[in-house]
Design a protein that fits this description.
The chain is an all-alpha fold. Helices cover 72% and strands 1% of the residues.
Length: 446
């Protein structure tokens, strides 16, 4: 009863829009030779790039994540937990389902390759099943930095996201001026700075620094929107908040100054809408729906592109799907049954995954790292390996060039195991009598 329901709503709302957005922009075509292609909607029908302003809701993920992580870390720290123990527990909650998903996809890639599936088809499918992975390595790194970031927050408050925003905006502009080579060189820093601003604002929100009146949220919403308009109008950045093939600059890879402005505007709007949405969430039915979506958010995030492959095999390979002109009025009308069918298939996938989800939940409890662990180098090594592997898959897919990714697969498997096997190190490191209390605190926070 003490939870802020609006934070859970933001996460549920964001995952729903991510799923719908990916489905909406994914279009399939059956070629005369029987093969299937997936033309890039944002590049083929340029006006659709404006739709990304509504569907790019990753700032809400990081905002809600910062809010929740700040409270979780404070409770763990006050109960005697350590940085290594807390980071290990948070990381494992992401890595276990991700490793299970990746293992099943990689098994399918290996079997398909052995059966002689066309390399280009395999590479396309491998990319589709990994298109959402960019979020995971960024979020894992920011999670690992939470104790440091929260310490900065406690000392300097709103000055921290302001400073990070100025640095992130500067890095983004440097990439725009210097071209793709410079953007690539500073990209990793931009990911941490831009998304770190939204995460840091979550700390500020939790501690009441953003909600002492409406002036600051209004300023963020209006100011962020105006800066975004200036950067994509007379400025150098495209309007699309998703990467588009053929564009010299991207707002997401790495995050640009325009993306930062949009993130600030989105946070401001979210804060302004909070009182009204909280009143709606007081209703039992609305809150129950949020709990259903929120409880399965990780599975939805990981598995939501599988229905696209199922529908492709059932309706496009067989030639049953109608083929109006790509981006035509008829094509858009057919988006409605397309989304409905995908939703039904996803519901079936989620039902079929229930035993796996229950098994992963049970395994997570058994493997949960000791919250008082002090000898934590295996966890940090495992986290580093996992971040590298996930970053590779995010950039290349599960079957780059139609081949099996041996080293990234091994990196994710070994990395996840090292994080999980860190659970017993608290005894060697002297987690002390505070460890059980910290475990209870973390379980309550989760």
């Amino acid at each position: 009863m003490g939870r802020d329901r609006y934070v859970d709503f933001l996460r549920a709302w964001a995952i729903v829009l991510v799923v719908l957005g990916h489905w909406l922009i994914t279009g399939l075509e059956r070629h005369p030779d029987g093969g299937i292609g997936a033309p890039e909607l944002l590049a083929t029908v340029p006006w659709t790039q404006w739709l990304t302003l509504g569907f790019q809701v990753m700032p809400l993920f990081f905002l809600a994540g910062g809010y929740a992580a700040g409270g979780s870390w404070v409770r763990a720290r006050d109960a005697g937990g350590t940085v290594g123990g807390w980071v290990g527990q948070r990381a494992l909650r992401l890595l276990l389902p991700t490793a299970a998903y990746s293992g099943l996809v990689l098994l399918a890639v290996g079997v398909s390759g052995a059966l002689g599936v066309d390399r280009d088809t395999l590479a396309l499918v491998g990319w589709a099943m990994a298109m959402q992975f960019w979020f995971l390595p960024v979020y894992l790194v920011i999670t690992a930095l939470t104790p440091v970031l929260y310490g900065l927050h406690q000392r300097w408050g709103l000055s921290v996201p302001l400073g990070m925003g100025l640095a992130g905006g500067g890095v983004g502009m440097l990439g725009a001026v210097g071209g793709s080579s410079v953007a690539g060189a500073v990209g990793s820093v931009g990911y941490l700075l831009v998304w770190g601003v939204a995460y840091q604002l979550g700390f500020c929100w939790r501690d009441g620094l953003l909600t002492r009146g409406r002036v600051l949220p209004v300023g963020m919403a209006v100011g962020g929107a105006l800066v975004f308009a200036g950067l994509v109008g007379p400025g150098p950045f495209p309007v699309s908040l998703i990467a588009v093939t053929g564009q010299d600059l991207s707002n997401t890879d790495p995050p640009s100054a325009a993306m930062l402005a949009w993130a600030v505007a989105q946070v401001g709007v979210a804060l302004l809408l909070a009182p009204g949405v909280r009143r709606l969430l007081a209703g039992v039915r609305v809150w129950a729906a949020v709990l259903v979506v929120g409880g399965g958010s990780m599975a939805l995030y990981l598995w939501h592109m599988l229905p696209v492959l199922v529908v492709a095999a059932a309706f496009y390979l067989t030639g049953l799907a109608p083929q109006p002109g790509y981006g035509s009025v008829g094509w858009w009308v057919l988006r409605v049954p397309w989304l409905v069918v995908l939703g039904l298939v996803l519901a079936g996938v989620m039902w079929a995954l229930r035993p796996l989800e229950r098994g992963l939940a049970s395994l997570s409890v058994r493997l949960r790292p000791d919250p008082g662990v002090r000898w934590a180098w295996p966890m940090w090594a495992g986290l580093g390996l996992s971040v590298w592997a996930l970053a590779y898959v995010a950039g290349h897919g599960f079957a780059y060039g139609g081949t099996f990714p041996v080293w990234p697969s091994a990196g994710l498997g070994v990395g996840t195991a090292l994080v999980a096997l860190n659970r017993g190190a608290g005894g060697r490191g002297g987690g002390g009598s505070g460890a059980p209390t910290a475990r209870r605190a973390l379980e309550e926070a989760a």
